[in-house]
Amino acid sequence: MLSFTTETPAQTHALAKKIGAALRPGTCVAFFGGLGAGKTTFTRGLAEGLGLPDIVSSPTFALVNEYHAAGCISVYHFDMYRVNSPEALETTGFWDYPLEDSVFVIEWAENIADELPQPLLKITISGSGDQTRQITVEGDELLDHFGS
Known about the structure:
This protein is α/β, with parallel strands linked by helices. 21% of the residues lie in helices and 27% in strands. The chain has a domain of 103 residues: 3-Layer(aba) Sandwich (Rossmann fold), CATH 3.40.50.
């Protein structure tokens, strides 16, 4: 497990960009953290680290946003806020997306914790608003590719 402290959204974005550059197809990134913790800001950094030019937005009302670009790993960005059971997850079409060729990024992963695909990179973000963020990253061997 690695722990980080960020003081600003820009620092959170920069950390996420570094992690994004180490991601590989087939990885599931699962966010744990409350409303306003910075999950979408973190996802913007991950996407930039993967070389994706898309403007990342919260998938709250869409359930999933897709980000693709030539020569880049695609990202499927899910919001599981309203999904609270394996049956509800099944009805979303979640398992129909091509994880083996892409990266899944899941906000509100605690709602489907027992169903999360592997390999899993668990990112827990504490703090909200203008507060300092405490970020822990655990799981998956890609942690060896970056440090504090």
